[in-house]
Amino acid sequence: MLLLLSISIFLTSCKNNIKSVEKETYLMGTIVQLKVYGRNAEKAAEESLNRISDIESKMSINIETSEISKLNAKAGISGEKLSQDTYSVIKKAIEYSKLTEGALDATIEPIVKLWGIGSDTERVPSKSEIDEKLKLVGYNDIVLDDKNSMVKLRRTSQAIDLGAIAKGYTADEVRQILVKNKISSALINLGGNVYAMGNKLDGTKWNIGVQNPLSTRGEYLGTLSVTNKSIVTSGNYERYFIVDGKRYHHIFDPKTGYPSEKGIISATIVSDNSIDGDALSTSTYVMGLEKGLKLVESIKGVEAIFITVDKKIYVTTGLKDSFKLTDKEFTYEKGR
Ligand code: FAD
Ligand code: MG
Question: What is the pTM of this model?
Answer without folding.
Answer: 0.95
